[in-house]
Fold this protein.
Amino acid sequence: MSTEASAPESRIVVVGSLNADLTIYCDRLPQPGETIHGNGFAVNPGGKGANQAVAASKLGGRVSLVGAVGEDPNGALLLESTARAGVDVSHVRRAAAAATGVAVISVDALGENSIIISAGANGTLTPADVEAAADLFDGAAVVCLCLEVGLDTVAAAAQAAHDAGATVLLNLSPYAEIPQALARLSDVLLVNAHEASLFLGKVSVPGAGMDAGEWEPVRQQFADRGLHRVLVTLGAHGSVVLDSQAADAQRVTLIPPTKVVAVDTTGAGDAFTGAVAARLADGESLTEAAAFASVAAALAATKKGTQAAYPDAADVNLLRSS
């Protein structure tokens, strides 16, 4: 939960999506054209924006969310669950002409998933909503963005955050090409290995077990595109911090994985993003934030669902000290 003791300058603003997650659990994911039997079904609050906001709030951040939901039961579910986690939802708009966004998710016995999203009300979020929330950006420490809402809205939020002096944390997911202007406004880019490869022109990125030297060309390619601080997540293999603003010996840092038994990896990336935002807002370095976030994401994968699975800071610190 967020705390009243949080300083105003540590505030986090998330501009993004809210979805109802329709999840079916199964032994394995179906092949194209195949029908298989499931063994469980759940409707849970989700969406990358809401997930990241809840994750950051549970870890002690003071968080405000800018988004849109429909005037339907799923919208009510999302508003209630997000607010219950301590997130300020006063700038989540109820859209009369669109249903709340949904994600249809299949999760197999190993916790891996496949996801299809329908934007719904998320598609109605515009730069005007960002302008209406201008008061949130003043004094914010971190503004968290993803691509489940329109690129024009993401760009407007990045510009507002930049103008306010906040750190712009862009999670390039679901993957899409972004304009160079948005890349320049992004202080920290967060991608998985596949997204990193696509962004860099389908080049190969190092796999598990590679050393820091093999990541150096990747760091340089990101820097050449104006992205000087990049986090690359590697799933069960940890993550990599590429920081071109650091001293030479600290420009590439490998974050080791946290070993857990995965039950459901849905939303683990959002837990990572929210944790990074929370720690950056508290003044930690990018490497420190990534190490903390790695543990938070691993814990999130040990339970079904997304927001209900997210840990608090005590859970993370306990596992880090064990």
The longest strand covers residues 38-46.
